[in-house]
Specification:
Blueprint: H1 2-18, E1 22-24, E2 38-48, H2 51-62, H3 67-81, E3 91-98, E4 103-109, H4 132-136, H5 147-158, H6 163-176, E5 178-179, H7 182-190, H8 192-197, H9 199-205, E6 217-220, H10 221-233, H11 242-252, H12 271-276, E7 280-282, E8 285-289, E9 292-296, H13 303-315, H14 322-343, H15 354-357, H16 360-368, H17 386-389, E10 410-416, E11 421-427, E12 475-479, E13 482-488, H18 494-508, H19 513-518, E14 522-523, E15 530-532, H20 534-546, E16 551-553, E17 561-566, E18 569-574, E19 583-592
Helix pairs in contact: 2-3, 2-6, 3-6, 6-10, 13-14, 13-16, 13-18
Length: about 600
């Protein structure tokens, strides 16, 4: 009998080995998991774009883990269910409120340029005239990943569980699979031609060269195996070990099909770049808005400074109706973006006048340049925080412009019963990143280095070892010294305006959090037109057009997740519709919330 069982096990193993690494059954249809955009209760809370990930975080909290433990488990699960937005091939920024020490801390796990002299100011110059996607689709675009290092640092410093334990929900999700929804299918469809050109990507994310069918179950056995080996071997296997060597080989020689439609250039990353990578433990940005303390992400992200400057400018103004409020909001973000582009980059390479840019004096100067009755001509010129700064290193750069940024990142928030909160944005940049999957490993590599400006002048030009400027804006708000709100969103450079809009509505206009998240959105990043959702134009367009604003329509902006701490528990909020809707959960629900 024992011999028969052994033979059966061997046959099953052989069959499994012959099956594709990632599979989706195109014939059997499954029902998608339920999504709840709002949850109220006690014991801890999680909000993400995905119900499988939210459930993973809630399970960790229910078993006694803290908000950091839950955040890492959620992020690892999103690497499975949101593979085109996040994963160990990318990077991100984590903001943590620690109840025991009563402080907000930063983990900068941003991707980094290879430390190679060839990665110089002109590395992307040939792509400056419209060749952006030629740069994206290449090993040249891949930055040294920081996501895994972020998880390890967060767990070692602030967590209570091991990396092995944190990876278990992701392993389970990759092995069991998830139900393909419209969002996953449409994202695959949008990348189909890119994915078909990379053999490992087609093997992992396509089914017989086509988009997985909505309602089918998608499994990623390669990623399950990679996570299991990471759990056993530790992060050194990635940062300088055998897996790192596989990453480097993939970057230096992208595994294309014969005669690909595009030229996939090799990158410069080597194993020493991975072995030398370190997260940065930084001080958060901090400013006061309407009596709340708002903490954000410092350089190399522009999120904390630009959101903070925007709120500072708004606070100087008054309004009597929504038209007046949104006029001031749009003008404030335009001026803040002009300053962002001129002054913010990796502050290990350029001087960033952060304190001056977040000062009330500088905000007053910028507010004075806004006409309450008319939109300014765009682009507006940057201000001069150097007058406030006094540093000889502060040099205005009025000709600086924005860099292109991919809009498909992901954001998660967690909170626990001990008083800790986490706001964490992670990404592989473009939807589908570089489109290059590490063979037999189940994860895509980022294209984060295309966040650098391709030409100058700019504080965000490429350099060896430099981290490109980001717009990621994980935010934590304290009320009278107590944790009150954690919020963030994906969306490229629209992240800044979306987070600022939610904060201005929730904190400044006292709009309830679910309504602040559901509010129609617009983004003015110092461009000729305001990019806005159809509902925003329908609701506010006429009044703002009379003031001189012009509009460009976009279906949706962002995918916010947020948690508000209340006296008797938590209010967790995700999107009801945007990006297919998100999922909010609490450990002990009080009751279901209906919008």
């Amino acid at each position: 009998m024992r011999r028969l069982l052994l033979v059966c096990c061997l046959v099953i193993a052989m069959v499994a080995a012959l099956m594709p690494a990632a599979t989706a059954n195109p014939h059997r249809k499954h029902r998608e998991p339920r999504k709840d955009p709002v949850a109220i209760g006690r014991g801890g809370a999680v909000s993400t774009v995905d119900p499988t990930a939210t459930a993973a975080g809630i399970k960790v909290l229910r078993r006694g883990g803290n908000a950091v433990d839950a955040a890492v488990a959620v992020a690892a699960t999103l690497g499975v269910t949101e593979p085109y937005s996040a994963g160990i091939g990318g990077g991100g920024f984590m903001l943590v409120y620690l109840a025991e020490s009563d402080e907000v801390v930063v983990i900068d796990g941003r991707e980094e340029a290879p430390d190679d002299h060839r990665f110089d100011l002109d590395v992307f110059a040939e792509f400056a005239d419209g060749g952006f996607f030629d740069a994206v689709n290449s090993g040249l675009s891949v930055g040294v990943p920081g996501t895994l290092a972020t998880w390890v640092d967060a767990l070692e410093r602030y967590g209570t569980i091991s990396l092995r334990q944190a990876l278990r929900p992701g392993i389970r999700a990759a092995r069991r699979g998830f139900i393909v929804d419209e969002t996953f299918a449409s994202q695959t469809e949008g990348n189909l031609e890119r994915f078909r050109q990379i053999t490992s990507t087609a093997d992992t994310f396509l089914v017989d060269g086509e988009v997985p069918e909505v309602g089918s179950r998608f499994r990623n056995r390669d990623l399950a195996r990679t996570y299991r080996q990471l759990a056993r071997r530790g992060p050194e296997w990635f940062y300088g070990g055998e897996l790192g060597e596989e990453v480097v080989e993939t970057v230096q020689d992208p595994p294309t099909v014969a005669n690909p439609a595009e030229e996939w250039q090799p990158g410069f990353m080597d194993i020493f770049d991975l072995a030398d990578y370190e997260v940065q433990n930084l001080e958060p940005t901090q400013m006061e808005y309407q009596g709340y303390d708002v903490f954000g992400m410092p350089s190399p992200s522009s999120g904390g400074i630009t959101v903070g400057e925007t709120l500072n400018i708004i606070e100087d103004g008054t309004w009597s109706d929504p038209t007046g409020f949104y006029h001031l909001f749009l003008e404030s973000t335009a001026h803040a973006f002009a300053d962002r582009n001129a002054y913010i980059g990796d502050d290990r390479y350029v001087y960033v006048p952060q304190e001056a840019m977040l000062s009330e004096e500088f905000a007053a100067e910028r507010f004075a340049q806004i006409d309450p009755n008319a939109a300014s001509d765009k682009p507006v010129a940057p201000g001069n925080p150097c007058d406030e700064d006094g540093s000889t290193f502060c040099v205005p750069d009025p000709a600086a412009v924005d860099a292109a940024e991919g809009a498909n990142t992901t954001h998660l928030v967690t909170a626990d019963r001990y008083g800790n909160m986490v706001s964490y944005t992670l990404t592989i940049e473009q939807t589908g990143g570089s489109a290059i999957t590490v063979p037999d490993r189940g994860f895509l590599l980022n294209n984060e280095l295309t966040d650098f400006n391709f030409t100058g002048p700019s504080p965000n030009l490429p350099a060896p070892g430099k981290r490109p400027r980001s717009s990621m804006s994980p935010t934590i708000v304290l009320d009278d010294g107590e944790p009150f709100l954690a919020v963030g969103t994906p969306g490229g450079s629209t992240i800044i305006t979306t987070v600022a809009q939610v904060l201005a509505n929730r904190l400044g206009r006292d709009v309830p959090l679910p309504d602040a998240v559901e509010e129609p959105r617009a983004t003015q990043r110092n461009t000729t037109d305001v990019v806005a959702e159809p509902a925003f134009i329908e609701q506010y367009g006429d009044g703002l057009t009379e003031l001189g604003h012009t509009f460009e329509e976009r279906d949706e902006l962002g995918a916010v997740t947020a948690i508000e701490r209340r006296r008797r528990g938590f209010l967790a909020v995700a999107e009801a519709v945007r990006r297919g809707g998100g999922d909010a959960g609490v450990v002990r629900p009080r009751h279901r919330h209906r919008r």
